[in-house]
């Protein structure tokens, strides 16, 4: 799959989008849920505007990016033509980029430490913009991953509420190459304990499992766009 192949890739992406929507609907049905209660975030990181356009033409409006700068380069011109696009930030955020993130994104999935809560609170007060926030949990307790420790979640939630962030739910990236269902189930329990309804979990390889366990947002990149040039 390359982008040099114009039409073939466009048709492929439209087809893959339809297939993924159908798979989400099927998983929702199995779990007795409504498909419209699950948002498909098309993760367009590393992919150029030309690769994103076919999905916009198919009606996809929710997209995820993992870098503020890349999104700032790519999205303003697309948003000018598709003003109802909803942009989600799903990659780690430095506090010094909080204002840029608040200006550009409609939802921030990576709130994982008090210093970032403070920076986001300040950026929201100054800009008047209030993107939904998800608290990222390091559900597999992996040192290389972002996310707060499970034990720190109640304090982080208190801090986020004290800073008046609009906290919508929890987000996780479970450990790779192991069965994700137990981690998703733990996330669902943590969200219930926190009184939060949003659950951002499930990617290309495991989104159906995530949907059956209660995901409200699945973040899908490679299954839609094909493999990325590098693992971002
Ligand atoms: C890249 C990424 C995804 C999408 O991953 P795929 O396996 O390509 O679907 C989802 N969530 C986060 C946080 C990511 O960085």
Automatic annotation (TrEMBL):
Keywords: Pyridoxal phosphate. Residues 17-228 form the Alanine racemase N-terminal domain. Its cofactor is pyridoxal 5'-phosphate. InterPro entries: Ala_racemase_N, PLP-binding_barrel, PyrdxlP_homeostasis. Belongs to the pyridoxal phosphate-binding protein YggS/PROSC family. The modification N6-(pyridoxal phosphate)lysine is found at residue 45. SUPFAM superfamilies: PLP-binding barrel. It holds the Pfam family Ala_racemase_N. This is Pyridoxal phosphate homeostasis protein.
